[in-house]
Amino acid sequence: MLRADAVPAQTLRERLLHAGLLIETGVEGVYGHSAAFETVLAGCNAYAGRMGAADGAEVLRFPPLLNRTVAERNRYAAAFPQLGGHVFSFDGDDDDHQRYVGKLLRGEDCSCELTMTRSVLTPAACYPVYPALAARGPLPAGGCVIDVLGECFRHEPSAETARLQSFRMREYIYLGDAGRALAFRDLWMERSAGLLRDLDLPGELAVAHDPFFGRLGARLADAQVDRKLKMELVIPIGPDARPTACMSFNCHLDHFASIWDLTQADGTVAHTACVGFGLERLTLALFSRHGLAVAAWPAGLRGALGL
Amino acid sequence: MLRADAVPAQTLRERLLHAGLLIETGVEGVYGHSAAFETVLAGCNAYAGRMGAADGAEVLRFPPLLNRTVAERNRYAAAFPQLGGHVFSFDGDDDDHQRYVGKLLRGEDCSCELTMTRSVLTPAACYPVYPALAARGPLPAGGCVIDVLGECFRHEPSAETARLQSFRMREYIYLGDAGRALAFRDLWMERSAGLLRDLDLPGELAVAHDPFFGRLGARLADAQVDRKLKMELVIPIGPDARPTACMSFNCHLDHFASIWDLTQADGTVAHTACVGFGLERLTLALFSRHGLAVAAWPAGLRGALGL
After folding, report:
1. Per-residue confidence (pLDDT) for residue B286, from 0 to 100
2. Which helix (H) or strand (E) holds A79?
3. What are the Cα distances from residue A277, in Å, to A66, B182, B196?
4. Mean pLDDT, residues B179-183
5. Fewer C-beta within 10 Å: chain B N or C terminus?
6. Cβ contacts (< 8 Å) between B66 and chain A: which residues?
């Protein structure tokens, strides 16, 4: 149920653009943001930090670029080829440059003037964590929790307000034993009820699956759903109250740990789990639910966000 | 002159990696960062914000992706083809996917399985500002100042500690009349003396040029130097005290304004100028100068950074 002063659903994107909270870039799902939008997003990020404060996580931050070999070793292109972003650059001489610029001026396709670099765009904030932790050797006894925040990319151009190509993801990742990994994931699902209450947002937990590609992908998705390995906190956004995943809670079992030889203190293979916050989506959910004028939001909500 | 407790110059990168302040990703010039590194970087960013507070800038934030047509209209590929990053993605069906994954598994070149998307990586934080401001119509009387902070990309893989492919740039951009644009640039050069004093950093202003490509580029660089359109604050970093541009002060004349039809209130073409802070480089300069233990830094320095 949207509040009486909530933004009418059929015009959320247009109203956010008109209010200057979102700024068009001409690419679907890529927006600039105003100070007010950023302040609310920072409040959501700080709230997420308080939710996880008891876990004593180690803070790591990575840039938007990921080593291409990490994506390859994670078999990202096998599972999600349609979402990946590869960085290409020009590596030629003066003559190549003349040909390249000539094509650009004539409006011709320049793709073959560019070559693949060693970087891809990070698809999920936790991806650089596994090789970084593996490089340290066995995990500490009892495992550990890592806190990351990063700009992520998924190539899914769309006019849907909350379907972004470029977005910020805050994540907590547990690496350690199987039982604690599952307990970590379940604890965060419990914690998410507090988020809905404090931010006065409607929402519910739902069984979900990753957007695996193609015929084989449909079977992978079914298996993921059957085992309830991926759960999401879905919150209605926009005039049609479209349920939108704003948090996800993921059991990886030993998927990443096996790929990266992540072992526990006793030498056995680790399990991992993560919880992710889609910070733009949480921010959009707040504007959708509470209206565009932050100063008019309930005092308790503003307090929870530090506004 | 490095302080007695400063990091010996020949080992800065190695010591930062060993201390966990930088984290290897396997790609040259792409590093993860620890909480301590991020705290110092956030302090530099907040200091930059206080330096610009009197200007009443409008805050805008953009993601790491730039509309490809913006880069093309700015003729980025003509001037800096070697630095640009283009985002490519997979746009095929199940059969294409099988061929793509097969090539990956055999370690073959997959470049031609990917196609150019509508996005490039943002090379400078101010690039998305010009089209966004142009879309609003003529500038306000007296012009305006915009405050941006963004993840930028330049494809220049290097083992030099301070030469990064992915880095954060804080910028203030003035858009308005020619005289005020020049005065804005000169005011920021004066302000930079305060930064050196407050952060206890050695450094000096130097005439500079952009890294234009190739034979024609050398002539463009000469012209830029002759007219002193680009100045830099260079600070020694590392054991060999390599002078490193940590801020830049740029007069664009009507270059961007002409491309984007940015007009003043009276209808004449605007001039623009910008000042940029390389936040990773300022942070590295502080660690190079003051040592790796932030708690041991002078109280005045920690105060200036809010640490």
Report:
1. 98
2. helix A76-79
3. 20, 43, 38
4. 98
5. N
6. 25
In a domain, A2, yes or no: no
Picking from B176, B172, B221, the residue whose alpha carbon sits closest to that of residue B192 is B172
- B273 and B155 part of one domain: yes
Range of the domain at A23: 9-85+123-304
Confirm or reject contact between A136 and chain B (CB < 8 A).
no
Q: Residues B96, B231: one domain?
A: no
Asked whether the beta carbons of A82 and A136 are under 8 A apart, the reply is: no
CA angle A275, A59, A122 (to 5 degrees): 60
Domain total of chain B: 2
Instruction: Among B88, B136, B173, B216, pick the best mutation site for testing chain A contact (most A Cβ within 10 A).
Output: B88
> What is the tens place of the pLDDT at every residue in A123-175?
999 999 999 999 999 999 999 999 999 999 999 999 899 999 999 999 999 99
Residue A261 to residues A74, A145, A254, Cα–Cα distance (Å): 12, 17, 10
Beta-ladder partners of B87: A87
Interface contact B91, partner A, CB < 8 A: yes
Q: A189-225 burial, b for 16+ CB within 10 Å, e for fewer?
A: eebbeebbebbebebebeebbbebbbeebeebbeebe
Q: Which of B120, B142, B175 is the last residue of a domain?
A: B120
Residue B2 within any structural domain of the chain: no
Residue B285 corresponds to which amino acid? A
Domain boundary among B73, B96, B120: B120
Q: Rg of chain A's alpha carbons, rounded to an integer? A: 21
Interval B133-161: pLDDT, tens: 999 999 999 999 999 999 999 999 998 99
> Average pLDDT in the A244-255 region?
97
**Which chain A residues are Cβ-neighbours of B53 within 8 angstroms?**
none
Q: Which of residues 150-169 of B touch A (CB under 8 A)?
A: 151, 153, 155, 157, 165-167
User: 3-state DSSP: chain B helix, strand, coil percent, rounded to 5?
Assistant: 40, 25, 35
Average the pLDDT over A108-137 and give the result.
96
pLDDT score of B263 more than 60: yes
Q: For residue range A52-91, list pLDDT tens digits in order.
A: 999 999 999 999 999 999 999 999 999 999 999 999 999 9
Phi, psi of A150, rounded to the nearest 5 degrees: -155, 160
Q: Is pLDDT above 50 for A4?
A: no
ipTM exceeding 0.90, yes/no: yes
- Nearest CA distance, B1 vs chain A (angstrom): 31
A264 with A254, same domain: the answer is yes
Task: Decide if A64 contacts A122 (C-beta within 8 A).
Answer: yes
Same domain? For B91 and B193 the reply is: no
Same domain, B199 and B55: yes
Region for residue A120 given its phi and psi (left: phi exceeds 0; alpha: psi -120 to 50; beta: otherwise): beta
pLDDT at B3: 54
| Nearest alpha carbon to residue A150 among A87, A76, A66 | A66
Judge if A27 and A79 occupy the same domain: yes
- Does residue A23 carry a pLDDT above 90? yes
Same domain, yes or no: A104 and A244: no
Based on the domain organization, do B162 and B193 belong to the same domain? yes
Any domain includes A4: no
